[in-house]
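Re-run with default settings, no changes from the original entry. Doing this only to confirm the output is reproducible before filing.
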Amino acid sequence: MTDVDITKPSLGILSVLSQGLSIFVKRLPLILGIAMVLGVGLNLFNFALFGDIMFSNPEAMFTTTSNLISYGVIILASIVVSTLITAVITLAAYDTHLGRPMRLGTYVSVGLKNFFILFVISLITTIAMSIGMALLIVPGVILYLMWVVVIPSVVVENAGFGALARSRELTKGYRWPILGLVVILFVVLMIIQALLGGLLGFGFTAAFTGTAGLLYMLFQGAVSSVSYAIYACIVVMLYARLKEIKEGVGMSDLADVFS
């Protein structure tokens, strides 16, 4: 006989989605602007290093030592920038959820204070999930579901390196619903990307050179920024819901992380 707790509260996938989208809309200029630093900035950096070769002969990006080094620099830069950007968006969403005014300078300060921990954790999770994905995908998905709220655990709770275990604890028993949430979110983001692509007249598989290539990279960066910002807001709401379920603690009951 299986041990099933029929009284276990529902995750409330649709509620988490709607709350995350609501936060994104409420703080659209700020949150999207922060995300643009990641999406557009890294794409421009990528284009500056490789130029038209990205479209005309992408395999060449991995055929020379200098190109491999450049690609490694891009990967490292993406982890560094995304680590700080995710922390800032998380804190902005946190304040929005509580009805507080925006404090961008404070968010950056908190992100920088926790940067080393966030960077190491991001590096560990990225490598581990990449290896897991290479091993028939399933192990990577399992690790992702375990660690999906690791960033909020660091910046909201000051969990430090214990955030990996903290995220695993919070998601335990809810990983199937979280997977459902992620699948729905993925579909929503794909629809948004398709709509934006159609609106701006760009195809996702088109190849461009010169100025057209630069414009295409800007477009891709802008679209990915929208997706990234929405995703980050929804993860914050997922974190809040898991704490409410597991501990009966809402985000408003937590100590002010900025004090």
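The chain has a mean pLDDT of 81. The CA atoms of residues 87 and 155 lie 7 Å apart.
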